[in-house]
Amino acid sequence: MADPPKSLTDLPEPAAELLSQALRRIRISGSMQYCFMPQGDWTTDATPAPWRPKDAIGFHIVAAGPCWVDLQGHRTQLQTGDIAAFPFGTPHVLGAGAGGRLIDPGGDLPARPWPATPILRYPDRGSQVRILCGYVQCEATGFAPFRAVLPDFIHIRTADEGAADWLAATVAQIVTEVDQPQPGGGPVLERLTELAFLEILRRQFQTPTPHGWLAAILDPALSRGLVALHADPRRNWTLASLAQESGLSRSALVTRFAELLGTSPMRYLRDWRLFLAAQDLTTTQQPIIAIATDAGYGTEAAFTRAFSRSFGTPPAEWRRSRSASSSSEP
What we know:
This protein has twelve helices and eleven strands. The protein is α+β, with helices and mostly antiparallel strands.
């Protein structure tokens, strides 16, 4: 298998264009952070915080370690500078040592709004660990090919990379913003965290696999068709027109989509349009019928059925829930 691309410049131009389009479409709508500092032996509860939004990616940034994370019985050691992220909110336990006391940082948070990033201390004998926890609201899981790229657990080690890796410098600045708060530091910390997660997503999207979205955009024929489809999703696409853009026969296009993406060309188009519709519902006040038309549906009822199958909730309810979650407080 080829080595992972190190940057967009390592990808062929069509693949780089598609990756850039994808990252532009992945809307990061907010984030929340707090810091907790336990000492000695300790462990946390695995129950996800009830106030975390549904589409949130939980994370832990280890400002000073070591500690461990246990995910479904598999334990991973975390060091200073490590990032642990959970795209699907998979229950997990953090801890240090063995047999330590149970702490609940999420449940101990003060009521919002916060004048500065909350810092929760759990004094005891023994070494101290400092962890920045929270979530990033991100819609990367709303499109099946993107969702398939993401594992339950992402572990990135930045301390070993040093100055050569700007993500390591970003993590160091995030820690500085928590340790040395300044006026206006809250929004800066949020933007730094969101920028770090955009880079994490980019690295995941560039992880080579025999199948999946990266394999598809690296396929010369598929990438031509996907560039055209992503650039103009509202076009009245047919299998024939998409095959023509790809330079393949219709049967070859269907076969290649099935092999690399596990779906059909027209289902991919449908899912991409619904993903864009979900963003429009969140970010605009367009009438649902207008969004339905842009997504290629002749009636609001047909759009509602398709959207509900894909996202598990009708579009009107989706819009209300996203509006409510953007203003909710833990």
